[in-house]
Amino acid sequence: MSVKGFVSAVAKDLQENRGEREELYKEFHKHPELSMEETETAKRIAGELDKAGISYEYVGDTGIVATIENGEGPAVAMRADIDALPVPEESGKDYASEEEGKSHACGHDFHIMSLLTALQAFNAHKDAWSGTYVGVFQPGEETAQGAKDMVENGIAEKLPKLDVFLGQHVLSSLPGAHVGTKPGVFLTSAASIRITVFGKGSHGSMPQLGVDPVVLASSIVMRLQTIVSREIGPSDTAVVTVGSLQAGSKSNIIPDKATLLINTRAYDKDVEKKVHAAIERIVKAECEAAGSPKGPEIEYYDVYPLTINDEELTAKVRAAFDEVFGDESIDITPQSASEDFSYVPDAVDTPYVYWAFGGFADQENAPGNHNPAFAPDLQPTLDRGAEAAIAAAGAWLANQ
């Protein structure tokens, strides 16, 4: 059976159950939960799996692994992240978030529905395929905690020996309903860095009696701008962002410390190491130059690995997408976003393929992920996410 024929057979219920799926999607969208707090989201997913008669196990508090065994054949896993963001929704949708200060502003609700729909379709049409299909519902992607948590809680013991691990993300950076693939490096590594520098408090009218951490932190911010422009080669790519600088509380008080929150991105581990070394060198040197009474505190957190697609397996997925989606299967450039997706396949020594699908018909005016207005078009996004999940797995599981 061709992959296109396989998708037609397995996904043939999508039109019939579209209304039901849209209503379920809206429930996920209206009730977002933050990273590692996805209790009700996990319960709703488990309830849908129960209704379909699909076997599953919890991994940690809110992670779920669902497994459909269907005779001899390859074993394919697909991951969906399930957490939301501390971002108030401003999409204007009539199904907007009902949880104050929280929203699915990254599109994980579409990922949940794509995987749930694929699992239900595979379970309902076992005559079209053989092997094992595994759905991994992962918490805590937005804080880089969830994949590690599933590894630490023994996900390896709950998975068969896998042939491939699959993942996808809805984005505004490619046309609506299109799927974009890329072999090799697809997403950057990332790290957040909390840096505290110390001064000596004083009255604002007597600056000579203190060491001003506001001036110190400001000097650091300006010097950090030279890392990418003067230390990273023109053919390499890196991002250094100072997202927060906090110090003091009153205009006439020189505080005794300042805190900077920095975020870095890179497509190469050596480049990332160079960026981090430069940040630490600059911070320490500026502290010494300012006469800081003690050295800085530097803490790394929310650390994400590179996402590097297996080239041979990506070609296999791309061929399936070309067959099923035609001109809507396209190349995509490396994305400067980051993911903790690869922690799990790396932990179980499995090659992986990660791709993107477009969520907005009006791509030119589409808000980016994490924007308060980010809420992709309900259709055809909902269907396309499910179809892509089914087509990619079909490259391995379709009956020949």
Notes on the protein architecture:
It contains 11 helices and 16 strands. The model has no long low-confidence stretch (mean pLDDT 97). Keywords: Hydrolase, Manganese, Metal-binding.
Features:
400 residues, alpha/beta, 8-stranded mixed beta sheet, 4-stranded antiparallel beta sheet, 11 helices, 16 strands, Amidohydrolase
Percent of residues in helices = 25-40%
Cα(first) to Cα(last) distance is: 5 Å
Uncertain stretches: none
Strand content: 25-35%
Radius of gyration: 23 Å
The average pLDDT value, as a whole number, equals 97
N-to-C SSE string, H for helix and E for strand:
HHHEEEHEHHEEEEEHEEEHEEHEHEH
Structural class: alpha/beta
The largest sheet has its strands arranged as: 1-2-4-3-5-16-6-15
3D shape:
elongated
The number of helical runs is 11
**What does the largest sheet look like?**
8 strands, mixed
- In total, the number of strands is 16
InterPro entries: Amidohydrolase (IPR017439), Bact_exopeptidase_dim_dom (IPR036264), Peptidase_M20 (IPR002933), Peptidase_M20_dimer (IPR011650)
Binding site for Mn(2+): 106, 108, 142, 169, 370
GO molecular function: metal ion binding; N-acetyldiaminopimelate deacetylase activity
Cofactor: Mn(2+)
